[in-house]
Amino acid sequence: MPSRESYEVQKGEKSLVQKAKQEANQQDILAAALGMRISGPQKPPATIWQPLKLFAYSQLTSLVRKATLKDSSLPHKYEKVHNFKVHTFRGPHWCEYCANFMWGLKAQGVKCADCGLNVHKQCSTMVPRNCVPDLKHVKKVYSCELTTLVKAHNTKRPMVVDMCIQEIESRGLKSEGLYRMSGFSDSVEDVKSAFDRDGEMTDISANAYEDINIITGALKLYLRDLPIPVISYDAYPRFIEVAKLEDPEKQQEAFREALELLPAAHSETLRYLMVHLKRVTLNEKDNLMNAENLGIVFGPTLLRAPNLDAMTALNDIRYQRQVVEFLIKNEDTLF
């Protein structure tokens, strides 16, 4: 009967043989990926195999990423373009779109600041608009582009909007001067810092912030801090034009068309906000806030003039108010 020691030796030898076979199969697969034919005595020594293996892995990764990019080119509800910036890569890098080497010592290509995709500058124009932001790149909640935030957290709307509105509707709809009254600025900044730090785990309950005006202030600050307003810069001129129309029927249809110009995440956020503000107006007896008053508060927050001179921007203020007032009054038919 074989001893325990001999059994262990046989077991060890067997595992070494299996490992060697596994590595041989792996080499064959990677060689095929490289388009090489290496077999028998012609197999490369370990000193040159390791660089070849690293190269092959990078090629396979690039090809898989490219295939994913093409498969994901189907229409998405929340479409987002990549936020490419010129980047200097350390060590060898391959384009994740075309799978070719990125030559040069510096500024070899571009990298998406939101999802980390690395591509040639010339390839960046061909990459589908399907950026899926990674939370390790998206470090803030406030001042983060709206579509970037919702895609990074896989939500329909920004968490700040959802959580603040839910808290306001649970205990603040009858509060006098809701949204007109300002909360203590230091406390509003505390809420902002908490969202940036803790995200969805942020506590904005009455135990943490008894004054509901702090929560309304935090929501308004979030909307003001957006790099692209809820009613985007591209759509802004159209909304102002529609506000100037005098025929109510034409205005209704024109607003419906203008809303289609908004990115999907912006449109959904605006819809949710208008439904909420309509509920605020239903409590006007207590909170003294009607659609006109809310339009004054939210007009300059939701619509910001894109690079207009001071006089034009000043003249637009009343139309900004009218846009928000109309959206609140007609939210049930517009969205």
Report a brief summary of the structure:
It is found in: Membrane. It is built from 13 helices and three strands; from the N terminus they run ααβββααααααααααα.
Count of runs of 4 or more consecutive helical residues: 13
pLDDT average, as an integer? 83
Largest sheet descriptor = 3 strands, antiparallel
Q: Which stretches of 5+ consecutive residues score pLDDT under 50? A: 29-36, 57-76
> What distance lies between the first and last C-alpha atoms, to the nearest angstrom?
82 Å
Instruction: Give the SSE order as H and E letters.
Output: HHEEEHHHHHHHHHHH
Share of helical residues: 40-55%
Rg, alpha carbons: 29 Å
Q: What topology, given as strand order, has the largest sheet?
A: 1-2-3
- Helix/strand class: mainly alpha
- Overall shape: globular
GO molecular function, one term: zinc ion binding
Keywords: GTPase activation, Membrane, Metal-binding, Zinc, Zinc-finger
InterPro entries: C1-like_sf, DAG/PE-bd, PKC_DAG/PE, Rho-type_GAP, Rho_GTPase_activation_prot, RhoGAP_chimaerin, RhoGAP_dom
Domain Phorbol-ester/DAG-type: 81-131
How would you describe this structure to a colleague?
With 335 residues, the protein is mostly helical. 55% of the residues lie in helices and 3% in strands. It has a three-stranded antiparallel beta sheet with strand order 1-2-3, with no helix packed on it. A hairpin with a 5-residue loop joins strand 2 (109-112) and strand 3. The chain is globular. It starts with a helix and ends with a helix. Mean pLDDT is 83; it is low at 29-36 and 57-76.
